Every structure is written in C-alpha cells, then in structure tokens.
Automatic annotation (TrEMBL):
Region (Disordered): 25-66
UniProt record similarity statement: Belongs to the diacylglycerol acyltransferase family.
Enzyme category, top tier: transferase
Protein name, as recorded: Acyltransferase
Pfam families: DAGAT (PF03982)
UniProt main location, coarse: endoplasmic reticulum
Organism: Equus przewalskii
Transmembrane segments: 72-98
Matching InterPro entries: DAGAT
Membrane topology according to the record: Multi-pass membrane protein
Encoding gene, per UniProt annotation: MOGAT2
Subcellular location: Endoplasmic reticulum membrane
Entry annotated with the keyword Transmembrane helix: yes
Keywords: Acyltransferase, Endoplasmic reticulum, Lipid biosynthesis, Lipid metabolism, Membrane, Transferase, Transmembrane, Transmembrane helix
Length: 341
C-alpha cells in the first residue's frame, strides 16, 4: 500500500488506492474485482455481480427481506380503516403526505428510542461489540462503508442505530445514520420507527443531505454489498461485492467527506444458508428475483427456541464491529491527501 502511494495520479487522487490495480493504471474504469476472504470452516463461492451500476444510491444498500414490524404496521394501518378508529389512519395519511420528504432530509433521530433497555438484551444475546481504532473529528462529515451485509445485519443495526454498544461514547459528537431501502419508509407507522433509530433512505439526495450538513459530526453508513451480498452470507466466508458499486467513493469526493471502513466480524456466522453457488439453478432464480424486486431471498435457517438444530432465530455467535480500521481513508484538500486513521 505504501508503494502504491507513489503510483501515477495517487498524490492528486488517493481514492484510486481503493480501486483495483488495473483500474488505477487505466485511469479508473468501470470494471473491478471482488475481494474475498475465506476461513477453514467453509469456503465461500465466487459471485456473479449484476450490473447495478452507481446510477442511484439505492443500488448500494438494499434490504434482504421484510422486517416483521413493517408488516405489522401495515396490517394495523389497514385494519383501523374498518373500525370506529378509522380517523386515525386518515389523520396519519395527511401527516404522511406532509412529511414525505423527511426520510431524505436526515430523519428524526430519537435518543430515547436508541437507549431502550431491550437493545442491551439484543446486544448481549450474541454478544455484539464495537471497537474503535482511531478518533473521528466531530467537525467533519463521514461516509462509512460497512461490510459484510450478512442475512439481517444485526451488527450494523445495534452499533449504529442504538446506544447499546456506546457509539456516542466512543465517538463523541458523531451522529450515525444507517442507509436503508426507500421502500420501507413508505410503510405507515413503521417509517417513524425507522427514522427515530437514525435510518434514512438510500437516495443520493438523502446521503448528500447528511454529508453537506454544516458543522460536521454526521456519519452516513452504507452496506456496500447490499441485498446481493446476502446470497453469499454463510459461516466462515466473507465475499465483498464491489464491482459497479464504487459510487459511494464518488459521493465522498463530491461532498468532501472522509471514507470510514467498518468491518463486522461474525456477521455471516449467524445463519446457515442452503447451498446456492453461482451457476446453480437456485442461484439463478435468486438473482432473477433480486433484479426484479430489489430484494434478495436467501434460503437460511438458524436455531429454534428450545432446540439448536433448526429454526429462524440467529445462532449466538459473537459479532465484533471494527470502525476506522487501518485502511486508507479520504482527506479532502487541495491537493487531496492520503493518511492512515
């Protein structure tokens, strides 16, 4: 990496260090590689990346399936219309219309909700921990690249959307916002819960709003691999999908934000997944569904309540999320500078 600093163009554009060697030498084309880390437990297969491109930030962070609270919220909203309390749904619809742009304008974070005791129980179940390796200057804004997605990304949620692991104590003055698929902010009632947790939509305008806030102290976290990466999530395998997903680097450059890498060890160890290697009939169906619906449909299982052989409760495996690890981050200036955090 140190020798790469002297590569042509790096001193002026250090973000090139984040691109594959062939792209750096060729001026940063649209191709790219897939970083992969495998353990001795289980080898992860290759990946077939769809040409999602970087046309919208929504292609960088997509959900893996419908959260159960969202389904409940929708049923309650519709159900109230057929009761004597129908006017609650009507009044909320008016509020919803007037407030429709709020998820793209930073949301409305609630420290009270983020400090609920139940989040501490959720943290202790796995357990989940957050490790800081460098300070973040509260006078600047940051764009974090989170990996891996896993099946449900509990590490990202617990560390960035709750105070159970002490994010505000580790990084004083930094307000985290986790990026989520815009669809879920159209679900009545559930959208309020999401925004109170600090989640915002994955639209470019939404991310730009956070990175352009005056005074600094804002962090937007993007799960880079998104829904497609969930299809590769299995114990011991870490497959990073990065090709055609480098638009977040351009956003950081455009808005003068620093890039913060975040890696969540153990995120893929929570569920077993049915074998779906690239080229198999199952993976072909999953890829087609993902391209059509923007959601991925991994066939997974974990443990049960009273037995450990089968169920949909995640295994109790430790999750350790490391923020600002010793990788290169962006420093905006004239010319741009590379530094280690």
């Amino acid at each position: 990496m140190l020798s790469a600093l002297n590569a042509p163009g790096c001193r002026r554009h250090p973000w090139l260090l984040l691109l594959p060697k062939e792209e750096r030498e060729g001026g940063g084309g649209s191709g790219g590689g897939v970083g992969q880390r495998q353990s001795q437990q289980r080898a992860g297969g290759g990946s077939s990346m769809p040409r999602a491109g970087c046309k919208s930030a929504g292609s960088w962070s997509k959900g893996t399936g419908g959260p159960e609270p969202g389904q409940i919220s929708l049923v309650v909203f519709i159900g109230l219309l057929f009761t004597r309390f129908w006017f609650f749904s009507i009044l909320y619809s008016i509020w919803w219309y007037l407030d429709q742009d709020k998820p793209r304008q930073g949301g409305r974070c609630s420290k009270a909700l983020q400090s609920w005791v139940m989040w501490k129980h959720m943290r202790d179940y796995f357990p989940i921990s957050l490790v800081k390796t460098a300070e973040l200057d509260p006078s600047r804004n940051y764009l974090a690249g989170f990996h891996p997605q896993g099946i449900m990304a509990p590490g990202a949620f617990v560390n960035l959307c709750t105070e159970s692991t002490g994010f505000s104590s580790l990084f004083p003055g930094i307000r985290p916002h986790l990026i989520m698929l815009p669809f879920w902010f159209r679900v009545p009632f559930f959208r309020e819960y999401l925004m109170m947790g600090g989640l915002v939509t994955s639209d470019k305008e939404s991310i730009a709003h956070i990175l352009n806030r005056k005074g600094g102290g804002n962090l937007a976290a993007i799960i880079i691999g998104g829904a497609q990466e969930a299809l590769n999530a299995r114990p011991g395998a870490y497959t990073l999908l990065l090709r055609n997903r480098k638009g977040f680097i351009k956003l950081a450059l455009l808005h003068g934000a620093a890039l913060v890498p975040m890696f969540s060890f153990g995120e893929n160890d929570l569920f077993d997944q049915v074998e779906n290697s690239p080229g198999s009939w199952l993976r072909w169906i999953q890829d087609k569904l993902q391209k059509t619906t923007s959601f991925s449909f991994p066939l997974f299982h974990g443990r049960g309540i009273f037995q450990y052989s089968f169920g949909f409760i995640p295994y109790r495996q430790p999750i350790t999320t490391v923020a600002t690890a010793h990788l290169w981050v962006l420093q905006w200036g004239s010319p741009l500078q590379c530094r280690r955090p």
